[in-house]
Amino acid sequence: MKTGYLTAIGCVAMGLAFAVYSEEAMVGQPAPDFKLADTHGNAVSPAAFKGKFVVLEWSNYDCPFVKKHYGSGNMQRLQKKYTEKGVIWLTINSSAPGKQGNYPPEKWNEMSKEKGSAATAVLLDPDGKVGKMYGAKTTPHMFVIHPEGVLIYKGAIDDQPSFNPETVKGAKNYVEAALDAAMAGKAVETPSTQSYGCSVKYAD
Question: Can you tell me the distance from the alpha carbon of 51 to that of 145, in angstroms, rounded to the nearest whole number?
Answer without folding.
Answer: 10
